[in-house]
Structure formats: C-alpha cells, structure tokens
Structures
1.
Amino acid sequence: MSNWNWNKFTQKTQTRQPIGFLIEAVRILGLSNGNALDLGCGAGIDARYLAENGFNVEAIDFNKESVEQTKKFCKGLSVSVNQKNVADYNIIPNTHQLIIAWNTLSFLTKDESRKILLNIQEGLIKDGIFVFSLFGQEDDWVKNHPEMSFWTIEELKNLLFNVNFIKLCEEKRIKPGATGQVKFWHLIRGIIQKKTV
C-alpha cells in the first residue's frame, strides 16, 4: 500500500503486547525450542516473544525502520532479522514449527498472497502451526485498494487443504487501527495446524 506510513506504524506498535493468538499457539505447541518465521515482523514484539519462549526466529520485513527496530528490540536473542519483501521470500519446505503472518499478506496482491499461503503450508513441519490475520471482503479498504488482497473463510479453507483449523474467527467492526485511523474492519484470524498425514 503505497500511501501507508509504515514508519509511523512501527513507532505506534512498539509497546503493544504479543498477539493473543500467538500466545495461544505457543501453548498448543508446548515447545521449548523450534524454528519460527515472522512474516512482516513490524516492531519485533512477536519475534521477541517467540525467542523468549525457546524458538529460533527468522523475522522478515520490507521496511528498513521495522528491521532496525526489531534488531534492537531482539538484541541478544535468537532472532535473525532480514529486510526482504514477503512476496519474494522463499520458505523452505518442512522447516518451521510455527509461522506467523499477522495482517501482512493482505498488503500483497491476491495472487502473491495465495502463493505465500501455499508456501507457508509447505513450510510447516507436520503438526506445525500457522497464526494469521487477513482482511475480509467487507473491509473498508476493498473500495480503494485493488493492489491488496481480501479473503473469505471459504476461499481460505479451499486453498489450504493439508491443515486443520484449530481456531477461526471473523471480526467486523468500526474501530481505530494502530496509527489511529478509524475504519470498518473485516478481519479473518486463526490458528492452523498442518496435518500429520
């Protein structure tokens, strides 16, 4: 989204708590170690939480300020931070216990987002977990942002064939975002676990 102020977003989200869905996913996994991937790491809050819970974390963001902030915030922890476009990032199959993409993939085109979701499915080990938030098709931004992607639950379930949906929620309400902009949000959020067979 070309007119989005990513530096302001990074600054405004530096003091938030780790994503609740992520905390729940770590509890479900019950792991004390493993590989985690944070696609769109922002200020590094979730990457730090994962590292503090025993994960080796690779944190990816295209924004220079986000990368620098995450490096500072996660200094001394097992977090590798790289400035890359998520759309171009190569997820190695069967390597991650946990992957999070929280409101990241919706800022890509539908084709890019679809490709990455399939790569995430392949990138998880068996029983690995994906924590996500996507924008739904009733979101305010649908009208003016054809470069973004908006989903339905049915599309997601049809695309990701090798997973179980542990938690799947839909939120529709008017509220301010991280930078204070008030809009109608349609969000699809969940926790997915890769099937063992």
Note: Confidence is low (pLDDT under 50) at residues 1-6.
2.
Amino acid sequence: MTDEKLYELCEMYGARALQWRSKFIGLLPEVERRRLYLKKGFSDVFEFAAKLAGVSQKQAQRVLQLETKFADKPILKEALTSGEISANKLAKIASIATVENQEILFNQSKLLNCRSLETLARDVRHGNDLDESVAQDENRNGLFERKNDDKSVHVNTLAKIENLIKLNLADEVVAKLSELREKGIDVSELILEFLEKRENEIEERKAKIVLEQALKAKDKVVVTRHIPVEVRKVLVEEHGTKCAVSNCKKLAETMHHTARFALVKEHNPYFMAPLCIEHHEIAHAIDLRVQRKK
C-alpha cells in the first residue's frame, strides 16, 4: 500500500467517523428523555455516551443544553438531533439564534467552519444584522457595513487634544499638536483637513485605476485573477492592514472582490476590500446563500 493510498483511507475513515459520531451525539437528548441508558444498564446518559462512543461528559452536556436552547427553533433542533450539523458548530451560534434567523444560521453552519461561525456570532453581537450584511446586487458578495460615519468618529475622537494620546501618536506629534492648540489653531479641523485630503487622493488613484482597466478592457486585454500591485497598494492605504469589517481587529489576509471576479472579470478597487480569513469565508458563504435564493 502506497503512502497516498494509506492517507486516502485515513481521510475517508476519519470523515466517516466524524459523521457518525455527530449523529450519535444528536441522539443523546432522546436517550435522556426515554431513560434508555437505565434500561441498558448504564448509570446515566454520560456513561452511556462515553462507553458506546467515547463521548466526553462535556460534549454530552453541550448537546443536551443545545437541544433545550433550540426547543423553539425547529430547524436548528433538527440539524442537531439528526447530526446534520455538529454540536460544536451549533454551539458557536447558539447565543445569537432566534426563531427569525434560524434558517440563515442553519445555512451558514453548513458552509462555515467553527472559527468563522464564532466570528459571525461576534459580529452579530456587536450589532451587525445578518440580513443587512447580505448585498442585494447579484454581482456582489455580502460584507458587513460599517455602522459609524468615519468623519463623526474623527470629530469625536479629536474633540480634546488629550485623546490623541490614546491613538498611540508619537510624542513629537502630540507635542506639535499641543503647541498649535496653544496658538489658537483648531487642531481637530486641521487633522480633518488632512484626512479629507488623504481620502481625495485615494479616490483619485482609484478612479485612475478604473479608467486604466476600462481602456485595457476596450483593447480586449486578458485579465487574470492576479491582483495588480497598484490595486493592492491603494486598498492597503485606504483600509490599512486590518480586516475591513467593522469591529474586527484581525490582520487582513486576502483581498475580497465584492463584485465577484468570476462574473465581472475585473479588479475594481471600489468593489474590493481586505478581509481576514474568517470574514472572507463568511462573505462567500453569504454569497452562496443569495445565489441559491435567486
């Protein structure tokens, strides 16, 4: 037997083991209700789960708690008890599950891994609505919209010069701003002017890139999936190195096309944003759901 064949068998049996384990765990709430473990000589449902399938007490308790949590959410309850979705996944979204959003969460749980589901739940707890996060344009993938207006954030943050220290500005910068304030200069207005100038410059660069791409398209230049350097640079300058989703502090690891490349065949910086791995998976999972609805 070759190494590849051995690995193939391990992968296949491992996947099957996980599937059947999930189905076994899903049966535990019914086992508990019927007291089946007593009829078969076990002291409790936890001993039953441990001896028959090596399921820990913690895992058994989790599924029993989830079954209660999903009592009024039949879609999620069925997903749990049938073993269609693992208890580990469902536990990540249990805190945000409602009767209204259970179908959305069911679909997302089938598409996303545990880490991405955890990120999705955190986003919702921070005020991002599941439905509002789905873009309606058929060429767009869903991205969570920022809840705050950038300018108002700057105004509030810079209302007092002392708050600048919280921005981790260099001592030299704080000293110069303090000196300007002592001279009667409106530091907040000065910084806002700088920020607006920066935004205008970025806007001009993006418009120039779009124009250049349009000319290439007119000349029927083949566009590959490779993102041009100038597009990456302007997006990093606009969004920084962190994920573009509001409240996410993770490093961005991929440039996401909100206007799907497979359809539009372009790298338009107006419809791109840097995302962390989890939010990139969420965006594509949402897009799949939108396409299925259509």
Note: Confidence is low (pLDDT under 50) at residues 132-161.
3.
Amino acid sequence: MPASTELAQLRLRDFSAENQATVRSERAALYAEAKAEMPVHIADRPEDLMLVVVGGPGGHSALITTFGHTRAVTHPIVS
C-alpha cells in the first residue's frame, strides 16, 4: 500500500498562480522546475502529517489546522 503522502496530492496546475509560485520557491528542491502536470504532495514525509482527535460528543465542534509552514509540538499537560 502506498504511503499516505503518495496518495494525498494535486497536480501543480491545480494550484492558483500565486500558490504555484509559493510551492516552487518554498519546496524548490522538488518543484522549482516542475511541469504543470507534476503531482504535488501535501507533505514531503509521512511524519509531516498531523491527525488530532480530541473531545467527545457535544453541541460545539471545531477543526483547527495549522497555517503556513509550521511544525506541530506536543507537550503533556500535568495538573
């Protein structure tokens, strides 16, 4: 079975021109000279994917993802 990073992808042409430029510059090693049909993976490594499940049933739910190129940090909460 392919790694999750192999399945989660879009072609470079599916991004806006601005986001194509961002991908080409910030991930230059992979995409600087990429053609429009090149698949762009949402993460370079499986370790870059983050799945968080918290809480339980209730009247209010939310999904809050990171923005930009940030890294998740986990700290235990001890009370």
Note: The chain has a mean pLDDT of 79.
4.
Amino acid sequence: MEETGLSFETQTPHIPETRLIGEAPFTYAQRLAQEKALAIAITLDSDSTAIGCDTIVILGDDVLEKPADPADAETMLTRLSGNRHVVCSALALAEWDGWTIFGSDLTTVYFKPFTHDQIRDYIATGEPMDKAGSYGIQGMGAFLVDRIDGNLDTVVGLPRDLLNKLARQRLSGR
C-alpha cells in the first residue's frame, strides 16, 4: 500500500475465518475479504474506503490457510514440496453505507522439492506462522519456489492490478 502513495491505516477486524460447508475456495476468500472490509467500513467517515483482503492456498481440493501451530506448518509444507498449487487473493472495497465491490486473482505456484530439515529450519524462523500455506514468497520462503504463473502480488496478498480495477469501477460508478 505504501507504494500507491495513498494515505492509509491498517486495522485488523475480528471476524471468524471459517469456511462454510460446501463453500468453494474462491467464494470463501471473497466472502472473507468482504466481511473484513465491511467490518472496518462501518467505523469510517463517509469519505473513506476500507479494503479487505484474504489469501488462501489451494492444493487439490484442500484449502491451506494459516497454520495452527508448527506441526500444522510442517504438514502443509511437506504436502506442498515438489507440487504446484494455486494462490487466491481476494479483495473487497467497502464504504460506511454498506456499498461493496469485490474480486479475486489467481496465481499458480510451483514448489521445488525440499527436505524435512529445510522445512523445520524455515519454520524455526517463525515466518510461516501467519501465512496462508505456511510460506511467504516475499521473504525467506522464496527458496521454496521454483516458478509462478501469474502475478507475484497475488501470492504476496495484495494484487495491485485487481485493486486498481476495483477502484476504477468504483470511480466510474459515482
């Protein structure tokens, strides 16, 4: 956000992040982004907009969110080793009156194979503990990645192209 040149402040809404039974992964990420944006938007002035974000990792039919503990992180990273997965980052813009617009972006990430020692050493840094799928591509977790097909911003968690598209749609709707 700092790169946009816009003034902003970060707030963390306290909403349950629980996938509904039968909810598609992309729908889940978009719902959470909307709920986060709306939870903040109702506290804002009429000239402000809240941006809600949510990022999930999809491996096969499973959604990998933030790990519950180091053992969960190890399980996730072991499953991801040598495999490809999809990262979905959803954004929602919301205003105090309940107006929202949302969307999501997808990027395919290919992981290198890595050892259990590498996984344990990475977990010991603490970086994986607050990241969907237990890794941060923009940090020390970059060593895990072979290549990506798509937008790096999506994997980092704030797809700027999508944010620009949503902002343009909002401005054209005024």
Note: The mean pLDDT is 92.
